[in-house]
Amino acid sequence: MAPNRVLTALHTVAFTAIAGVTALLVAIAPAHADPAPAPGDIEAQIEQKWNTLEPTIEQYNAVHGQLTANKAKADQLQAQLQPLQLQVDMAMSTVSNLAASVYKGGRGSTVNAILSTNSPTALAEQLTLLDMVARSQRDQISTVAAARDKFAADKTSLDNLIAQQAKQDADLAAKKKQIEEQLSQLQRMRQQAYGSSGSTGVLKPTACPVEFTGGPGGTAAQKACGLIGKPYYWGAAGPNGYDCSGLTMVAWQAAGVRLDHLASAQRRKSTAITRDQLRTGDLIFFGSDNHHVGIYVGGGWMVHAPHTGDYVRMAQLTGYYANNVSGYGRPA
């Protein structure tokens, strides 16, 4: 074969092989994932979910509270029923004994009573006394039985209500759990979307708020996060600087809630909550005299204005801060 023809054949074989490998690589290469949603899109979804969750939580809390109270009331009624039933049983036993005595005496009981009585007057007195005793027993049974029946009817109605509320409680708890799981997934997506772009250094080491929520608390937290980097000025409430209560006052003002420019007054106006109940936007108070306040932004972080010479910044609720918390509050 001529050299040129040999080279041409080799080129053809090589091109065919390369084309085949290229096609194979394209076939087995993983498909590109869709671009991650922007943080703003995720926050809009969180806002929507949160607006659904809040009424569900309120309904759950109301039903759960009523259910707990009604269970206690049912226990109380049951405790009242037991002695009433015992009184009825004892009275019935006494009447039964009287009836048995009369039955055993038979028809001759009256004649025997007359024969054993000194006079008809004495007999009349005895019969009258016996009738009074019988009437008293009947009245006692009737009164106690009526009270027992009333409590029993009340308890039956209450038991039916408890059964209905228990079903509502379970349904709402399931809805609450489902929405919370969806929110948690969105929060994870949000952190991934922000990544390192959420950090602006030591003052804001991570995305802020760490856990975004809708509602007034979410709005207040977003406002506080937006003020990170502003200098601490004693007695200031912006726009150029803030002290601790000035920061939280302005943050909640953005959510339409008015707070005084004083940490202790803000605590008095807030609903007390526990550490486990903390959610984004809640206030954290420090010191026995409530001399300092920060705003919770989720994930164990808060935003606060520390002291003169410092700046509005994020801080973790660990160490010094965790050990000096005096309480938690939710403005409303």
DSSP helical segment count = 8
Order of helices and strands: HHHHHHHEEEEEHE
Order of strands in the sheet with most strands: 1-6-2-3-4-5
Give the helix/strand class: alpha+beta
Cα radius of gyration in angstroms: 40 Å
Compute the average pLDDT: 75
Helix content: 55-70%
Explain this structure to me?
The chain is of the alpha+beta class. Helices cover 63% and strands 8% of the residues. The protein has eight helices and six strands. A six-stranded antiparallel beta sheet has the order 1-6-2-3-4-5. α2 packs antiparallel against α4 and α5 crosses α6. The longest helix has 75 residues. The chain is elongated. The N and C termini lie far apart (94 Å). 22% of the residues are buried. The N terminus is likely disordered.
SSE map:
Blueprint: H1 3-28, H2 39-105, H3 108-115, H4 120-194, H5 215-226, H6 244-253, H7 263-269, E1 271-273, E2 283-286, E3 292-298, E4 301-304, E5 313-316, H8 319-323, E6 325-330
Antiparallel strand pairs: 1-6, 2-3, 2-6, 3-4, 4-5
Describe this structure in a few short sentences:
With 332 residues, the protein is α+β, with helices and mostly antiparallel strands. It has eight helices and six strands.
Give short descriptive properties of this protein.
332 residues; 6 strands; elongated; 63% helix; 6-stranded antiparallel sheet; single chain
